[in-house]
């Protein structure tokens, strides 16, 4: 992993208007992503974790420019992505690819695997000459652990794990530098999840890829991530190295999420303090004042509902361990 930043999000905001009435007047905003900033370094994996509705998938689409942001910017290799048009944007699209969550719906059932994996070459014909495409698709199948002889098969002839491998092969077709992985193993059985995560780690080592790995499950993200960011209601509330987040989290939300992760060592199970989060996640159309987590936080005080905490370096942290909490304190977690 290099220290060189390849992808950077700065103050990224995505609000969706809520319209009502015959005139479809805007009566409110759903604040899906609300001021998110982070760096992704060349060859690293940044895990993004949070409950459903926290904005992590919207963030993934913004990083791909599948959506235009309300405010903020994304730079790839120093280039402002949202300022690019035409051929320049098309070139950028080659460098950032996505692997979707559901291998059952993201592959066209009427197309062969060869057509699905080779689809990107139709738009980016300069990457592989027409005569070499079949060979390249076969290479990609081999790269993800599938037989090149299966090039003429259809998606329904493969298992869920194999279909996700096909999705990964399609993501690799244009030799990207960054892959946005949007819950890539959530739809798979636990036994298959590890195989796909191991494959992604192998590909990263071989090809020098950087991943933004989005998941709702902290235990999945841990295995693959170098750093982890935790999101709550459109905000990044904590970000740090994998061992900082899992062993010494400072934000109460991270601490609560971690307390729910099963402890593998049975002798340690009774020693782990459980933090039960009360209430549901509030609506992103009407987030709580001050700290958005204050309605569910076990450490909340009066200040929390009045003043929004900023994401800042934690004084007890080592390196870049940032937390958005007025009363952040390190809590050692058994893992
Ligand atoms: Fe909890 Fe207050 Fe910290 Fe928010 S700022 S996480 S409510 S202690």
Distance between the amino and carboxyl termini: 25 Å
The helix fraction, in percent, is: 25-40%
Shape: globular
Q: Report the biggest beta sheet as strand number plus sense, adding barrel if it closes.
A: 8 strands, mixed
Describe the protein:
- 29% of the residues lie in helices and 23% in strands.
- The protein has 335 residues and is an alpha/beta fold.
- Strands 6-7-8-3-9-10-12-11 form an eight-stranded mixed beta sheet, with helices on both faces. A four-stranded antiparallel beta sheet has the order 2-1-4-5.
- It has a domain at 254-335.
- The longest helix has 18 residues, at 190-207.
- It is built from eleven helices and twelve strands.
- The chain is globular, with a radius of gyration of 21 Å.
- It has helices at 56-64, 86-95, 113-118, 120-123, 133-143, 160-172, 190-207, 218-224, 242-247, 252-259, 302-306; strands spanning 5-20, 25-41, 45-49, 71-76, 79-80, 96-99, 178-182, 210-215, 227-232, 235-241, 312-313, 322-323.
- Bound molecules: iron/sulfur cluster (SF4).
- The site of iron/sulfur cluster has 13 residues, from loops.
- Iron/sulfur cluster (SF4) binds at residues 251-252, 291, 293-294, 297, 299-300, 304, 309, 325-327.
């Amino acid at each position: 992993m290099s220290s060189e930043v390849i992808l950077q999000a700065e103050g990224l905001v995505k609000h969706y208007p809520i319209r009502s009435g015959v005139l479809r007047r805007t009566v409110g905003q759903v604040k899906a992503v609300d001021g998110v900033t982070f760096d992704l370094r060349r060859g690293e994996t940044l895990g993004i974790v949070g409950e459903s509705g926290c904005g992590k998938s919207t963030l993934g689409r913004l990083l791909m420019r599948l959506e235009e942001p309300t405010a903020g910017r994304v730079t790839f290799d120093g280039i402002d992505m949202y300022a690019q048009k035409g051929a320049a944007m098309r070139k950028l699209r080659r460098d950032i690819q996505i692997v979707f969550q559901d291998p059952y719906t993201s592959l066209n059932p009427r197309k062969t695997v060869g057509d699905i994996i080779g689809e990107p070459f139709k738009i980016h014909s300069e990457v592989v000459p027409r005569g070499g495409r079949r060979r390249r698709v076969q290479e990609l199948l081999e790269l993800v652990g599938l037989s090149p002889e299966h090039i003429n098969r259809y998606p329904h002839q493969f298992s869920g794990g194999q279909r996700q491998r096909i999705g990964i092969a399609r993501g690799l077709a244009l030799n990207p530098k960054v892959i946005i992985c949007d819950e890539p193993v959530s739809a798979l059985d636990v036994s298959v999840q590890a195989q796909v995560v191991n494959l992604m780690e192998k590909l990263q080592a071989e090809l020098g890829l950087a991943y933004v790995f989005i998941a709702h499950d902290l235990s999945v993200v841990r295995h693959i991530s170098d750093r982890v960011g935790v999101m709550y209601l459109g905000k990044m509330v904590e970000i740090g190295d994998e061992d900082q987040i899992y062993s010494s989290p400072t934000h109460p939300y991270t601490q609560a999420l971690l307390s729910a992760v099963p402890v593998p060592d049975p002798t340690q199970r009774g020693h782990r303090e459980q933090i039960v989060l009360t209430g549901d996640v509030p609506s992103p159309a009407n987030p709580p004042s001050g700290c958005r987590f204050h309605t569910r936080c076990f450490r909340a005080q009066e200040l929390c509902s009045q003043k929004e905490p900023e994401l800042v370096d934690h004084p007890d942290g080592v390196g870049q361990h940032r937390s958005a909490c007025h009363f952040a304190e390190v809590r050692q977690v058994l893992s």
